[in-house]
């Protein structure tokens, strides 16, 4: 039958590098349609010709049976003139000409088909650790430019052999247009080296496995960067790794071969199983089942992930039991991506090295997620999830948002989309700051977004703010907690107003104080502070963050305890030092005021769990969460509703804790009562504000809500009272989302212009 229709189709979203063109070709062949497909900028463009019904069915099936890693954000179809001399369905050369939203595909964990081939006797890619196909393999981490074609990736250094070239060009093949396609003849290779030997090729991975089995620490080059690995069950290897990194307490992730092995380490429900096996293969925090205490840092959760690179599959085939897999860096520095850098920086830590010759162009840590309150909470967005594209409709010019200084990220927004970078670490580390600047530049180039305005935090000392001001563009400042709440609103396309509860460690407030326990009435472009935790002093400033007992002293002084009584509660603290802190609180010198919920957690962790120091952000709060058990009651907080904003005073809670300590109440019960008390207050104040403002949506945002116990109780209570509760899910719930929030605020016309900038 002659063709009576021709459709032009444009797909937007994550549609490149996910096997869409071969998918389209298969469908077209099945329906006897002619036409073509090509990557155009960041979009996929197709034309099909044939009977109208067949063309329409093609469009439906194209989207409904899209390859698993694809995410279709937009579909445009229009009818065009039928062409007379066309035969077959062709994949055309990419076009970069037109200006339209671009999307960067994220890395995809090894698929089942490639895994089978990797292990199949006789397969030409048996044991080849760079096996991939159109549906799996590295993407963002090897991309130098868009459209996504082999020439624009770090695979351009490897020339396809005849076999690979045939697969690449042959429509029915799984590797049809698989840009990183490779085999042992033409692709990259691993090389193993230690003080005695250097082994290249197929034996390299076996050597590395032997080194691990012998209790050695292996530096391993993977997809998003280098890892440090050792046997998780080998206590002395784990201790040594912690000592050298140095990482005294912070939990380390483990990798296991499969779900069955994972279930021996932690509790896996259906949602955890889906997360673990997802294309992004994140680290999933599980309720720990066994005591790998050296790995978990004494917490009751364990971070577990499954193999996502072929080399992981091979290593875990050879090794029984879980492997510690922690980002290779010195604590505080960005993940190492470069081979020479690995030699220089990891030489003193690792006993052996398993390196490869494919360049990592965009370093990404592993992503971290956990399930809580019936939701997926993102703790870190990295390999497999970054860059994340979030719809941000509106009429605004291109925006660069510079994020926060810890858990930093950047966000570029234009043409209705915001693109959030991977986790970039703490900017006080000069190497992280460099990586942050590089990533800003490379994302801007990849996405072809030249910012016309810059959004940043309002903190006077943030390095990200200094960076923003130095760009020579108009700059708008966005209050930190406003950004937190709007990030969650943006993820689901909500304009507000809502009641936003922003609980975190610290953020600069409009009154020049350190905020962090906030109830805000929030719209995209503005907010009003409706309630907050009562200000207390942080004796010693930053020192009070590292040593939580100092916050306990602040709260004890606040409820009127004298030096003697405080000395009895904190009997292990040197009385002379205690005296200095109490005096400091009296004078207020170097004791900035804060309403931070994170600091309240610190004080409670010091009193209830005996935390005296913390070596990483959220350490004390995590210990308190791990300690909590049972569900018997809640500590009270006071609400002063005669003030504007309302003031929430934890004094009754602190008094009750002191009483329970004296009465010898179980610490686990006290920890539970603390969580319950805070969650109940979040809800009661939130409900009161909703009633007053006539609202029914509450956003929970900020790093404190990484705490599953707190989040679950707050969400449960609010939902059963009929409120809609929103949290960030696709992007981090902590400061990793600040740049997205800033972009969304500025896109909506909010934020304060910074004087002195153009
Ligand atoms: Zn595959
Ligand atoms: Zn080949
Ligand atoms: Fe924050």
Question: Would you give the CATH topology of the largest domain?
Answer: DHBP synthase
CATH class of the largest domain: Alpha Beta
Overall mean pLDDT score?
A: 94
CA radius of gyration: 27 Å
Structural class: alpha/beta
Spatial ordering of strands, largest sheet: 7-6-14-8-9-13-10-12-11-15-16
Shape: globular
Proportion in β-strands? 15-25%
| Separate helix tally | 24
Bound molecules: zinc ion, fe (iii) ion
The proportion of residues forming helix, as a percent range, comes to 25-40%
Instruction: Report low-confidence residues grouped into runs of 5 or more.
Output: none
* The CATH architecture of the largest domain: Alpha-Beta Complex
Q: How many distinct folded domains?
A: 4
Compute the separation of the termini in Å. 64 Å
User: Biggest sheet, open or closed, and with what strands and sense?
Assistant: 11 strands, mixed
Quaternary state of this entry equals single chain
Number of strands: 32
Task: Write structural notes for this entry.
The protein is of the alpha/beta class and 758 residues long. It folds into four domains: 87 residues, Alpha-Beta Plaits; 177 residues, DHBP synthase; 176 residues, Nucleotidyltransferase, domain 5; 165 residues, Tetracycline Repressor, domain 2 (Orthogonal Bundle). It is 34% helix and 21% strand. It has 24 helices and 32 strands. The protein starts with a strand and ends in a 5-residue tail after the last strand. One zinc ion (ZN) binds next to helix 4.
